[in-house]
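Retro notes - structure team

What went well: the batch runner handled both jobs without manual restarts.
What didn't: labels got mixed up in the shared folder, which is why I'm recording both outputs here explicitly, each with its sequence directly above its tokens.

Job 1
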Amino acid sequence: MTEVTRRAPLKRTPRPRDRKQQIVAAAGELFYRHGFHNVGTGQIADSVGITAGALYRHFKGKQDLLSHTLTEAFDQATRLVTQNPPRDLQDLIRRIASTAGERRYLGILWNREARFLSDDARAAMRERFFAFLDEFARQLRSTRPDLSAADADLLAWSALAVLTSPSYHGSSMDPGALVDLLEQMTLAACTTPLAHPSPTGSAPEPESPGLLPHGRREATLAAATRLFHDRGYQAVSMEDVGESVGISGAAIYKYFPRKADLLSAVIARASEPLQLGATRALARARDSREGLENLLDAYVEFALVHHDLVGILVAEVTNLPDEHRRDVRRAQHDYVAEWIRLIRETRPALDESQARFVVHAALTVINDVARTDHLRARPAVDDDLRSICRRILDVQL
């Protein structure tokens, strides 16, 4: 008679109480680093040590995860400005800066990935976003009676740009020091005196799409730029581009063998005036302070004129082939390095990490205002952008 070995009873590993929150945090980080379309549910599940099937017990899919990530962030930010009214403007900003410092991915997810939500989810997210922004602007006006509703709106957008600017670079900083820096830069932006054009001055002319170049290659690049900016690279086909210039999608392949090659050409075209403007700005400068001023002037002009290219540089670089993406990232790094060098020469007390956060805050304000139609149409918006960014660049730590 053989002995039967009894199996020990299986022990059920208890699920962590915060499993859902762990999944949301992991998804947010992966979407931020790799882009929504480049991340699978299996990858998200692996990152928190569960199966894809277990993930689907909590969420319907990637869109649902992205929606939860953004919803949680906006709802928390709104609670911070509506519950227990803040004592003053600095208290209000301090609360939001603490959350922004913990959620560095938020700017990228909102500006680059939210367009991949369903129509209903995107509409709900925009409602949350504008509810927060309107409440922030309302409280800003209560502390600055000199502001019109339009002025408060501009400063609220600028404040949010500062708070989300750490999303666009990987520099590290002590968490407490980061919150302090975000608070001081946001406060500087919100207390900026704004230009007040004469009431008799003319309003800006409405923008028109303009004419496309006659040459097929140039017309294709111009059309692709517009479509990639308006709809996003992933949502645009070669046939869409061809239709907009009156040729077949197949004819485009004569100039661009792949859609990724077309994107590479658009981004290369965006980089040319940017680099030329920087070179010209530095050549006219007599010292570092003037060089920084010239760079600021040049970038404001570039962003307001080429806002569609700015949108593509912000949102679509992750879709480039690896070799092109590395080249673009290197060029972007070199461009920002010029700003950092100049600001540190004018303010030697800043270390490189502080300077990088300050520079990215100013650039993000310009990028976000330039890409927002009603702000870009504001009279004297170029002067206001320069004023806001000077205060950010001069922030005292």
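Job 2
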Amino acid sequence: MEIKDYSLVDHDLLAPDDSAGRFLLWVPGQTCVVIGSGSKSELELNAEAILADGVQVYKRKTGGCSVVLSPEMWCLSCALYGRKQIQSKDYFVLFNKAVCDAFARIGVNGLAHRGISDIALGEKKIAGTAIYRNRDLVFYHAVLNIAGDVDLISRYLLQPPREPDYRGGRSHREFVTSLGEAGFAPKREEFDKEFRSEFDRIVELLTVVYC
């Protein structure tokens, strides 16, 4: 099974930039699997199913376990450049709250930060997030399950070797849901607008408080 270097559309955000920060809300063009920087494919992937379906596998710079991307999901990628940095756990809380607040303003209520870096609706996961950082960059991205097929996640991913306490050993089918399954149908352009104001607030906050 070939694992390619990460080259999806948000890859350009990893390059140095003169701005304080940028973000991109995008939709995968096709189904693929993305493994974390420290992932071991033999522990996380169902290689037989991936090969049978001809699904491409990429390796990203950020940590965390493997994820499935599909055209029924949204990917949110954020980059902050050239500023004093805070702890990774604080970035997760800051960005995840921004995502939840942006969704709430377009009528998607009940989302909350759970575990180390998840966004959940009640006891079920809606989004996984991850961070990559160096001395000049903090890169955060989230995979938001809008209407993705959870059975596809179960097909390509094994039970993860690491999981948050609130998962409690549940299978992908028992643990993961989508906004569609919960009765929501958010519009991407509306979320993009609301998250933009949240992102600008984060940049301003970090500039005033930490720089």
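One thing worth noting from job 2: The two ends are 45 Å apart (CA to CA).
We'll revisit the folder naming next retro.
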